[in-house]
């Protein structure tokens, strides 16, 4: 996938085959990379498809400041809650939950 924007060494924004912005996360996936270069998909650990631009912008700002390990823990907590509650969260709700978990520290 071609990089649209590098956020930090571990995250980048790209566009999927449907033209939707996606957030790619993985250790070192964007290290030394620039816009227009490709990401080694074998290094991608997580992919977030966020259709709402406002939520994507907020989540992007969060990802820049928060280590990948902490975001992964927050995601696991949310996924556990989804399974236990039997509900699906919207992109905005997911961002809000991740923010609350991370900001509680």
In short, what is this structure?
With 105 residues, the chain is α+β, with helices and mostly antiparallel strands.
How would you describe this protein?
This protein has three helices and four strands. It is an alpha+beta fold and about 100 residues long. Strand 2 and strand 3 form a beta hairpin. The protein is globular. The chain has a four-stranded antiparallel beta sheet with strand order 1-2-3-4. It has a single domain (about 5-105), classed as Transcription Regulation, Sacy, Chain A. Helices cover about 40% and strands about 20% of the residues.
CATH third-tier fold name:
Transcription Regulation, Sacy, Chain A
Number of strands: 4
CATH homologous group name:
CAT RNA-binding domain
**Helix/strand class:** alpha+beta
| Order of helical and strand elements | EEEEHHH
CATH class: Mainly Beta
- As residue ranges, the low-confidence spans are none
Shape: globular
Task: Name the features.
105 residues; alpha+beta; Transcription Regulation, Sacy, Chain A; 4-stranded antiparallel β-sheet
Q: What is the topology?
A:
Elements: E1 3-8, E2 11-15, E3 21-25, E4 46-49, H1 53-65, H2 68-85, H3 91-103
Antiparallel strand pairs: 1-2, 2-3, 3-4
Helix pairs in contact: 1-3, 2-3
